[in-house]
Design goal:
Keywords: DNA damage, DNA recombination, DNA repair, Metal-binding, Zinc, Zinc-finger. Belongs to the RecR family. Residues 80-175 form the Toprim domain. The longest helix is centred in the N-terminal third of the chain and has 17 residues, at 37-53. The strands form two sheets. Strands 4-3-5-6-7 form a five-stranded mixed β-sheet. A two-stranded antiparallel ribbon has the order 1-2. The chain has two domains: 5-53, Helicase, Ruva Protein, domain 3, CATH 1.10.8.420; 75-197, Dna Topoisomerase Vi A Subunit, Chain: A, domain 2 (3-Layer(aba) Sandwich). The chain is built from eight helices and seven strands, in the order αααββαβαβαβαβαβ. Helices cover 42% and strands 14% of the residues. It has 198 residues and is α/β, with parallel strands linked by helices.
């Protein structure tokens, strides 16, 4: 089937997204083609704005459109507890359950020697810098329950324990090999409640 070049480029662009194959990409491209010009323009601006206007919070490393994210700016958050996660989407997953009221630290990845990601490649130094604040009493390690997440949790635990700060790990009510992003609120709430000291 011969398609106009702009349509081919759009289909190829959609196929670069995770989980989008040729058929879905084609369906999305034709959907965009049928959209009103105003909606297409808004969609394009939203894509551009994500790259241009979003950066990382200078405190917790979560995504933000201001120097400090809304969670770090919230005076009601408990500064004595920091929940360490791998990715910004994990913050969203935990926030959905509305049970955790502490602060976060986003590592922006996990230790994975197989793909040459070491401790210096993720935001561990930034976490240790935050722990100089004497108000921090507990660090909850909420990395994914897979090999990389477990290795990262153990590495961070060994660094924090000598500081005299309580280190806990979320309970394994989550499926091994799964991602926090896909867990439901009840499972996540039980995992947080059942955390244990490492």
């Amino acid at each position: 089937m011969h398609l106009p070049e702009p349509m081919v480029r759009l289909i190829e662009s959609f196929m670069r997204l995770p989980g989008i194959g040729p058929k879905t990409a084609q369906r999305l491209a034709f959907f965009v083609f049928r959209m009103d010009q105003k909606d297409v323009t808004q969609f394009a601006k939203a894509l551009e704005s994500v790259k241009k206007d979003i950066t990382f919070c200078e405190e917790c490393q979560n995504i933000s459109d201001t120097p400090k994210c809304k969670i770090c700016q919230d005076p009601k958050r408990d500064v004595s507890v920091i929940c360490v996660v791998e990715q910004p989407r994990d913050v969203i997953a935990i926030e959905r359950m509305q049970e955790f009221h502490g602060k976060y630290h986003v590592l922006q990845g996990a230790i994975s020697p197989m793909v040459e990601i070491g401790p210096d490649d993720i935001k561990i130094k930034e976490l240790l810098h935050r722990l100089a604040d004497e108000r921090v009493q507990e660090v909850i390690l909420a990395t994914d329950p897979n090999i990389e997440g477990e290795a990262t949790a153990m590495y961070i635990s060994r660094l924090i324990k000598p500081l005299g700060i309580k280190v806990t790990r979320i309970a394994h009510g989550l499926p091994v090999g799964g991602d926090l992003e896909y867990a439901d609120e009840v499972t996540l709430a039980k995992a947080i409640e059942g955390r244990k000291t490492l």
